[in-house]
């Protein structure tokens, strides 16, 4: 039975056998990165179902904020056997780690609570009202469309970190399976290296 003493010895043995370990690792990295992306997307679905206001109360629906879920990509890096799994959406990090959001260009954040979308500046005819100490933008019918806040705190809702931790053992298994497969395919050359 062959015993793998260490990574360096294994890689050196594979090189002596003429096996392109970088190419083999690249295949494993690609498959594992795609699996990680799928796991992250599943966590996004679980953590961030859409909410809607029903009778003045927020209720979770079965839907998903598609932007965050669909934003996760797998990209090759300059090093063989590595992939980058990431999102280009600006708010992906704050949902993972939590934090405080403050307005940049205005005094308050305008948070949609009605059926209007986008900035309140795109909707002429809104009027400012203060109800119970809360500032609101109301439409012509008197329905609240936006609530104004100085800042909002986003709770920490990790979805990347748990996916990485769950995938870690599977990555080890995949690398060991790759080495076993190489050893099986190149058994004669493997024995000749003495490892």
Secondary structure layout plus pairing:
Elements: H1 7-16, H2 21-47, E1 49-54, E2 57-64, H3 66-70, E3 72-76, E4 83-87, H4 92-97, E5 99-101, E6 109-112, E7 127-131, E8 134-138, E9 144-149, E10 152-154, H5 160-185, H6 187-193
Antiparallel strand pairs: 1-2, 3-4, 5-10, 6-9, 7-8, 8-9
Helix pairs in contact: 2-5
End-to-end separation in angstroms reads 10 Å
The strands making up the biggest β-sheet line up spatially as 6-9-8-7
Number of contiguous helices: 6
Q: Overall mean pLDDT score?
A: 79
List low-pLDDT spans.
1-5, 59-64
For the record, the count of structural domains works out to 2
Main sheet properties:
4 strands, antiparallel
Bin the helical content. Answer: 40-55%
Q: Which structural class matches the secondary elements?
A: alpha+beta
C-alpha geometry: rod-shaped
User: How much is the radius of gyration in Å?
Assistant: 26 Å
By DSSP, the count of extended strands is 10
Order of helices and strands: HHEEHEEHEEEEEEHH
Provide an overview of this structure.
This protein has 195 residues and is α+β, with helices and mostly antiparallel strands. The chain has two domains: 7-95 and 158-193, no CATH class; 103-150, no CATH class. 42% of the residues lie in helices and 26% in strands. It is built from six helices and ten strands. It has helices spanning 7-16, 21-47, 66-70, 92-97, 160-185, 187-193, and strands spanning 49-54, 57-64, 72-76, 83-87, 99-101, 109-112, 127-131, 134-138, 144-149, 152-154. It has a four-stranded antiparallel beta sheet with strand order 6-9-8-7, with no helix packed on it. Strands 1-2 form a two-stranded antiparallel sheet. Residues 1-5 and 59-64 have low confidence and may be disordered.
């Amino acid at each position: 039975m062959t015993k793998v003493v260490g990574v360096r010895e294994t890689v050196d043995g594979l090189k002596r056998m003429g096996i392109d370990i970088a190419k083999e690792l690249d295949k494993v990295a690609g498959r594992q990165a795609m699996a990680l992306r799928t796991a992250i997307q599943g966590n996004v679905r679980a953590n961030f179902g859409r909410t809607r206001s029903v009778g003045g109360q927020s209720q979770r629906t079965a839907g998903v904020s598609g932007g965050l879920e669909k934003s996760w990509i797998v990209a090759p890096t300059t090093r063989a056997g590595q992939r980058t799994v990431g999102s280009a959406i600006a708010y992906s990090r704050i949902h993972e780690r939590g934090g405080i959001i403050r307005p940049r260009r205005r005094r308050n954040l305008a948070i949609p609570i009605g059926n209007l979308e986008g900035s309140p500046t795109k909707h002429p005819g809104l009027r400012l009202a203060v109800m119970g100490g809360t500032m609101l933008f109301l439409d012509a019918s008197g329905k609240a469309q936006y609530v104004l806040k100085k800042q909002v705190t986003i709770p920490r809702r990790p979805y990347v970190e748990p996916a990485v931790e769950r995938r870690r053992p599977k990555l080890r298994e995949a690398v060991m399976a790759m080495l076993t497969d190489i050893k099986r395919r190149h058994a004669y050359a493997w024995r000749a290296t003495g490892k």
